[in-house]
Amino acid sequence: MPRYLLAAEADKIQDFIFRSAKLREVVGGSRLLARFCSEGVKELRKKHDNKPEVLISDGGAFRIVFDDEITARDFGNDLAELYLRCAGGVLTVADPVEYDDSNDERFKKCYHAAQEQLRSAKSRGDKAATAVHLPYTAFCASCGVGLASGHRKKNESDTRSRANYLCADCRNKTEEKFDQDRIFIGAFGESLLKELGDTEKLPQIKFELNDRDWVDLICKADARSYVAYLLADGNGMGQLFSQCNRTQLEYLSKELTNSLRHSLAKPCATMIRSQGEALKVLEGKLPVVPLILGGDDLFALLPAPFALDFATEFCQIYEETMTAILARPETNLSDQPKPTITAAVVICKRSYPHTLAHQRAECALKQAKEMARRIEVTTGKRVSTLNFDVVTGNQVTADSAGNDHHYRASLRPYFISDAAPADWGINMQNLIEARVTLKALPAKRRSEFEKLYADLPDDKKKPTEEGDFRSRWKPQFEGQLKRLGVQDANSQEEDSLEKRDKLPVRVLEALKLLGGAQKESGYLRRVERAPSPDWYANGLSDLLEAWDFAFKLDKPMDEYWEE
């Protein structure tokens, strides 16, 4: 008697999570999805006498095996209905396909058929539905999309809050409890405590996330009230899952979220150990808040000063963790391509809307993923990439000026390791090390260098050829280097002579770290990112833009102000 495999997947998860105005509701939506995946299928299995076999139930994706086609279709309808009632979202359910796991090849064939059915179901679009008609209606005051189901407070126990119109979805997100949460925040807390080990010598970490505006808390770690958002997505996971047999698929789907959680907890533990003074203002509260954490997707809030080094270490640990998981006997997938990840960091004021921050992160992530794909196609190498964006002033959209110029002020995206082709860019660690090298560079000189990079010529001449670059820009740059040697001539400090002699040398060292310091190339490096034409750039402008957000996790901040 044939068995059947059912594939189902939640649609527009990001839209469901980020359409709410409050960050608490974003976390509540992410937590609600995680709880639905862990508890929703269990409840439906009881209705169907616990017969369905669950292969995958995580991150809004479901793969379930049934004994007959009718039960599979009924279960799929019930699952979509339950998701609509619990989360107010749409769950696409594919037609069941015949299932045979007698050997690995037949299982993979069935799995691919289920994937094709799911893609076909998604391409059909939403079915016609009856619109709600009421003589008097009000839209939700939080998301502005759903119809309000009542006029009430988000939290009835909060005497300070006022009543407002809320839809059922936003109310459900708000009512999610975090204090006893063992699925989402609590699981991350357990990973963090495990990484911290002996906490007797460390400040007590308080996992009190309920009734707290996390942005207002974490922005205290930065003198100018900036925060950072980290967005990450694993590369090639669909291809990896398609190579798995049933045992590998079940094990890998469970370990994937654990690997993300571990990769986030380890740099967080490093930051807590090394940055005790800087994190005192957080009153012992959790310094990193995972807003979305499931499958191979992550969106987290963290202190801005350590954002770039944190993201770099996160990506490195993910690579190491996933490589170890693939080598385990339960998976035995060490022959598969190297696991990699793409990440993007958006640094912005605490008042910057989290929805816009996520959109900017998505754009930066797309650029980094595109470069990683091009490298794999062109060179055969798989690499992890990291992009970042710093939002200043009232800036709303990303600044794309100069992206098609022959000379550019940015080397973004960056790589996580030196395994990437040298002609494509540099390692993010180079930028962080250059920040240490240039710690004595005065703010006035930094501003002058920033203006100089903002005025790069748009000619097509190479740095070694006579053109606007060699006749105008390069002499101005070398003039700035000469001025560094005399900037402290009038200083009465005893160590002024030592600083005066060191600064030009340190700038040249930083230029070398950030792309090359050969005078014949104009302190720029040639970048070859096929199929784009070659261009020239240096990462100094990127460092100046992220100057206050490139501190090392394991280096006390006081050392940046000492010479």
Shape: globular
CATH topology of the largest domain, anyone?
A: Alpha-Beta Plaits
Helix/strand/pairing category: alpha+beta
Helix content: 40-55%
**How many strands appear in the DSSP assignment?**
16
Distance between the termini: 77 Å
Helical segment count: 16
- Lateral arrangement of strands in the main beta sheet: 9-10-8-11-12-14
CATH superfamily of the largest domain: Reverse transcriptase/Diguanylate cyclase domain
CATH class category label of the largest domain: Alpha Beta
Radius of gyration, Cα only, in angstroms?
A: 26 Å
Strand percentage: 5-15%
**Main sheet makeup:** 6 strands, mixed
* Average pLDDT reading: 82
Question: What number of structural domains do the residues give?
Answer: 3
How does this structure look, described?
By secondary structure, the chain is an alpha+beta fold. The chain has 3 domains: 3-123, Alpha-Beta Plaits; 185-361 and 387-393, Alpha-Beta Plaits (2-Layer Sandwich); 437-561, no CATH class. Helices cover 42% and strands 14% of the residues. The protein has helices spanning 13-18, 23-47, 69-87, 104-123, 168-174, 185-196, 214-218, 237-242, 246-274, 307-327, 354-379, 428-437, 443-454, 468-484, 496-513, 540-545, and strands at 3-10, 53-58, 61-66, 91-93, 97-99, 150-152, 164-166, 226-234, 289-294, 297-303, 341-349, 385-390, 407-408, 414-415, 525-527, 535-537. A 6-stranded mixed β-sheet has the order 9-10-8-11-12-14, with helices on both faces. Strands 1, 2, 3, 4 and 5 form a 5-stranded antiparallel β-sheet that branches. Strand 15 (525-527) and strand 16 form a beta hairpin. Helix 6 packs across helix 9 and helix 9 (246-274) runs antiparallel to helix 10 (307-327). The protein starts with a strand and ends in an 18-residue tail after the last helix.
